[in-house]
Amino acid sequence: MKRIAADLGVSVTTISKVLNQHADIGPAMRARVLKRVEELGYRPNAVARSLSLKRTHTVGIIIPDLMHSFFVEIVSALEASISRRGYGLLLCSSGEDARKERSELEMLRARQVDGIVLASANATGNTALLRDLTRMGIALVMIDRDDHPKVSCHRVLTDDVEVGRLAAAHLVARRCRVIGHIAGPPILHSQRREEGYRRALAATGMAIDARHLAAGGFMEADGYRAMQQLLSATPRVDGVFAVNDPAAIGAMKAVWDAGLRVPDDVAIVGAGDVAYSDLIRVPLTTVRWSKSEVGTSAADLILDQIEGEGVRPKRVIIAPELIVRQSA
Amino acid sequence: MKRIAADLGVSVTTISKVLNQHADIGPAMRARVLKRVEELGYRPNAVARSLSLKRTHTVGIIIPDLMHSFFVEIVSALEASISRRGYGLLLCSSGEDARKERSELEMLRARQVDGIVLASANATGNTALLRDLTRMGIALVMIDRDDHPKVSCHRVLTDDVEVGRLAAAHLVARRCRVIGHIAGPPILHSQRREEGYRRALAATGMAIDARHLAAGGFMEADGYRAMQQLLSATPRVDGVFAVNDPAAIGAMKAVWDAGLRVPDDVAIVGAGDVAYSDLIRVPLTTVRWSKSEVGTSAADLILDQIEGEGVRPKRVIIAPELIVRQSA
DNA sequence: ATGAAAGCGCTAACAA
DNA sequence: TTGTTAGCGCTTTCAT
């Protein structure tokens, strides 16, 4: 800028003004400046600009794991949205580890990002830090996980009870007689999905036998183990709702390894619709909710807050829907 | 910092020095400062730091598409590496579009990133800009695509000729008699893979019939169409090397739709090893090269250059290997 | 319509 | 060992 100002015999203020489309600049001056800018291929230094403006036009996102296609789709949609609105995206991963999550949060704070999108690891320890961040004026939206109830921020979630209800109701409609459930880890979302499962069965007067409820987890191996357990109970399950797709895939493998067929002997419904669920040997029936909607909603919420529109924390629920393929 | 300095009745320089572990600070002072920093929960402003240091500790990465699992694995490994070394990652996607790629490059330049990792869209138009960036001292490493020969920078690639050779040689070893190829778009990498295919056949004295070479592309739909074409030629192919996995999957679908079996009637080999290739109905035999190695190599190259170690552009070749599953 | 001056929060010579 | 001063590149009052 100094260079341009010198070349043209004007002040840097003037340059700054034309670059920022201030009204109080003569058209002649404006043209001269623009011309020289073009010639020199000059680009304003965003760092200096940020320091002066106290706005970085950057949002950070922290997700547990990039390898999980679920988060990738969200990131992808989010990136598209914020880039269109002129923001940059700083990508971090926590590896489901509370300490790493904390250090990434601090890093984002140090970098003065305007907002943070967080898919929280189950890290109660970071609640205080999150509150600090919001108090400092950093916009925050939590996605996917409904943790940190004490933190007041936007949230983009799905309706987990409905997820479980849709899945189990489908098994009921398919005339399964003994409907089991592979539960997730003891967090809110697993519990809500189980609750939906219970409600669906209750609605038809089916009893729930504890032996048809298996403790599982979110991983394929968890689903495998849980299904082995379910298969050993009598009467044997002929329908199972697994807490998520990886667990459902593990469950399918266990069924096969037991010499049984999916869905003829055991029908299986998952949740989450991972990217490849329609490519596996028996395409998975599952409950999905739009990840790209999660991403764009998060982008809208955070940018609107940054740009000073909505202030009240909003809760956006992305509706789940049943995808019937062949496993149930 | 000012606040702390005032509280302690010292100068900001002192604070800066203890924060940056300068040697010339008394242990007493150092302790006092650290204590107050702790109490206040103070974190240095990285933006100001960057402005002063002319170093942002940030690297940008531009990839064509986040939805493609191939790039995700690279990004994931890269993020892990650079985050461990204290850098942040600014993620951009070009959507295979030269103009978007250009604007992302300019954005990264404006933000003064220390380095850029680029999986280039086939955008000859950006060569000049890339050269400018390197001349400005921004570290550059190109991954996956070997474009912009005029630009002097690090490159992390695989050996595409070898990819094609491994794939075709496997079909030969399997005793396929008529080995076809589904080619990619007319870019270097497709051509090299085709060259490898040619060499493998030539090595065994097999002739190549133009009718067994189909113009395809990188997408599933391309593979489907190309395979339909190949199936109509006589003698019919009994082995096909597809330029990449999506094309190979499309090809498999075409084989099934024609009422034939994989690999009994037509054996198929892909390349790239997308994440789900072992989950599909007939697990795909393919040629893979480590994406995480691509990511970590890129990270090492760029950080070493940023931190002033190697200056000479390096060319890192990630060796491909054959993964035999069930499609061939 | 244009410019001088102060300031954003930090680092780095150079003195003391 | 600590402090003074200048400066990183930009924006923004407030004058002119």
3D structure, described in words:
Two copies of one chain form a homodimer. The first copy, chain A, is α/β, with parallel strands linked by helices and 328 residues long. Chain A folds into three domains: 2-44, lambda repressor-like DNA-binding domains (434 Repressor (Amino-terminal Domain)), CATH 1.10.260; 54-158 and 291-319, 3-Layer(aba) Sandwich (Rossmann fold); 160-288, Rossmann fold, CATH 3.40.50.2300. Chain A contains twelve helices and twelve strands. Chain A has a six-stranded parallel β-sheet, sandwiched between helices. Chain A has a six-stranded mixed β-sheet with strand order 7-6-8-9-10-12, with helices on both faces. In chain A, helix 5 links the parallel strand 1 (58-63) and strand 2 (88-93). In chain A, helix 1 (2-8) crosses helix 3 (27-40), helix 8 (160-173) runs parallel beside helix 9 and helix 10 (220-231) crosses helix 11. Chain A is elongated. The model of chain A has no long low-confidence stretch (mean pLDDT 94). The interface between A and B is large, with 41 and 41 residues. The structure holds a DNA duplex (16 and 16 nucleotides).
Which CATH C-level class of the largest domain in chain A is it?
Answer: Alpha Beta
CATH architect. name of the largest domain in chain A: 3-Layer(aba) Sandwich
End-to-end CA span of chain A: 65 Å
Large-scale geometry of chain A: elongated
Number of strands of chain A: 12
**What kind of assembly state do the chains in view correspond to?**
homodimer
CATH superfamily of the largest domain in chain A: Response regulator
CATH topology of the largest domain in chain A: Rossmann fold
Query: Could you give the order of the helices and strands of chain A?
Result: HHHHEHEHEHEEHEHEHEHEEHEE
Instruction: Estimate the mean pLDDT confidence of chain A.
Output: 94
**How can the largest sheet of chain A be summarized?**
6 strands, parallel
Contiguous uncertain segments of 5+ residues of chain A: none
